[in-house]
């Protein structure tokens, strides 16, 4: 069903939504109201019809559903989340995990329990998480592995990471985590992912309600987010929103190329009862190696959380420019280098990189495109980089337009 675009959401109404957000309690596991306010001002007003008849819920427009999400005051929950990520990355025999984690290991000055290395594992494969929250100061996320478990626990001012496989502990405090990679940097739960997706909602986006569903035994509405224009690698994003609480229960991103979802994350079990206080208690096990953040370099060695990515990249990479708008936007910067090594370079690095990418040419010159099912990047032979959730053809067009 095509959305009915409406301009009936006035500035006053948008202001009312913002005021309502300020009144509700802060909650770590609630979709940020500021993001949802942007979405509410730009979406269509298509009523939700329970066309499947299961479950049979009252009609609700897309704007009403987004408002319900913004007004959700859920700050206590526990449950299990299954997340599958299929970016279509080449099989590098485990090398990609090391690259994504920054090469962090338990030897040397690093810690196997540092979240900088552990949480990046979520970007590929299928994982099961146990999550719990009791207000903005107490949360726990556990990554369940075959024969081990990794937990990240926030209890007041303390943040603990524990890797049972290596029996290592990483400890920091809220005050010294401004530069560290945390759960917020690697969205894992449906509400985290929904918040990220809604940042892209603008007038290039269609947002509608697409019937109803049941997730983890709870009735939900399906919110459907789709780019209006061709050229994006994003086909559609579907969010199952709990009909009672307004909490996102399931997030699915399908690519425009078709096939399996790129990201599929959903609760398989959820409860909104107050978790047992012992859930957030942590004492390093006997014999565990404990690394304090300041001992390992803390924020100085961890990947930086780019509060102002434009400024950071502009300073380090010769200036960041965004071309286009909405889902078809492309970020570009100049590395100041001479492009990638060629196939004839010593060590075979050029030939290896050539095997991972595809050669392209245009008015910009020539270069190599490295593709996943979601994000594509063009590196030109003169060292310029173009990257976005757009097709290879859109990258070439952007490079041509920038010349």
Topology:
Blueprint: H1 11-23, H2 33-40, H3 62-71, E1 76-85, H4 95-100, H5 115-118, E2 125-134, E3 138-144, E4 149-155, E5 158-163, E6 168-173, H6 190-198, E7 205-215, E8 218-227, E9 234-242, E10 248-255, E11 263-271, E12 289-292, H7 309-316, E13 320-323, E14 330-334, H8 349-356, E15 358-362, E16 365-371, E17 376-380, E18 384-388, H9 392-402
Parallel strand pairs: 6-12
Antiparallel strand pairs: 1-2, 1-11, 2-3, 3-4, 4-5, 5-6, 7-8, 8-9, 9-10, 10-11, 13-14, 14-18, 15-16, 16-17, 17-18
Helix pairs in contact: 1-2, 2-3
Detailed description of the structure:
This protein is α+β, with helices and mostly antiparallel strands and 403 residues long. Among the domains are: 77-189 and 276-300, no CATH class; 309-402, TATA-Binding Protein (2-Layer Sandwich). Helix content is 19%, strand content 32%. It has helices at residues 11-23, 33-40, 62-71, 95-100, 115-118, 190-198, 309-316, 349-356, 392-402, and strands at residues 76-85, 125-134, 138-144, 149-155, 158-163, 168-173, 205-215, 218-227, 234-242, 248-255, 263-271, 289-292, 320-323, 330-334, 358-362, 365-371, 376-380, 384-388. The strands form two sheets. A twelve-stranded mixed β-sheet has the order 7-8-9-10-11-1-2-3-4-5-6-12, covered by helices on one side. The chain has a six-stranded antiparallel β-sheet with strand order 13-14-18-17-16-15. Helix 1 runs antiparallel to helix 2 and helix 2 (33-40) runs antiparallel to helix 3. The chain is globular, with a radius of gyration of 22 Å.
């Amino acid at each position: 069903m095509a959305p009915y675009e409406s301009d009936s959401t006035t500035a006053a109404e948008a202001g009312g939504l913002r005021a309502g957000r300020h009144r509700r309690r802060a909650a770590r596991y609630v979709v940020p109201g500021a993001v949802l306010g942007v979405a509410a001002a730009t979406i269509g007003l298509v009523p939700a019809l329970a066309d499947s008849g299961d479950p049979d819920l009252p009609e609700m427009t897309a704007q009403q559903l987004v408002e319900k999400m913004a007004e959700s005051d859920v700050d206590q929950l526990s449950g299990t989340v299954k997340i599958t990520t299929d970016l279509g990355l080449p099989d590098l025999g485990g090398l990609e995990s090391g690259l994504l984690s920054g090469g962090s290991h338990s030897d040397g000055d690093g810690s196997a329990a540092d979240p900088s290395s552990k949480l990046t594992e979520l970007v590929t494969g299928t994982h099961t998480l146990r999550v719990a929250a009791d207000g903005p100061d107490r949360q726990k996320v556990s990554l369940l592995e075959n024969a081990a478990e990794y937990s990240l626990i926030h209890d007041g001012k303390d943040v603990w990471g524990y890797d049972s496989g290596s029996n290592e502990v990483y400890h920091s405090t809220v005050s010294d985590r401004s530069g560290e990679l945390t759960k917020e940097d690697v969205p894992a739960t449906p509400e985290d992912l929904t918040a990220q997706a809604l940042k892209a909602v603008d007038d290039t986006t269609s947002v509608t309600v697409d019937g109803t569903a049941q997730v983890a035994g709870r009735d939900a509405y399906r919110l459907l987010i789709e780019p209006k224009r061709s050229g994006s690698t994003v086909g559609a994003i579907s969010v199952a929103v709990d009909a009672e609480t307004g909490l996102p229960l399931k997030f699915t991103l399908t690519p425009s190329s078709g096939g399996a979802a790129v990201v599929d994350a959903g609760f398989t079990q959820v409860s909104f009862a107050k978790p047992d206080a012992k859930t957030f208690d942590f004492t390093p096990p006997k014999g565990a190696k404990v690394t304090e953040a300041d001992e390992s370099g803390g924020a100085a060695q961890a990947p930086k959380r780019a509060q102002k990515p434009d400024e950071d990249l502009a300073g380090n990479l010769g200036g960041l420019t965004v071309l286009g708008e909405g889902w078809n936007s492309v970020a570009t910067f100049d590395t100041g280098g001479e492009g990638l090594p060629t196939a004839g370079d010593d060590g075979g690095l050029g030939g290896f990189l050539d095997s991972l990418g595809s050669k392209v040419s245009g008015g910009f010159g020539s270069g190599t495109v490295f593709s996943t099912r979601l994000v594509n990047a063009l590196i030109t032979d003169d060292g310029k980089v173009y990257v976005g959730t757009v097709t290879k053809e859109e990258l070439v067009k952007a490079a041509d337009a920038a010349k």
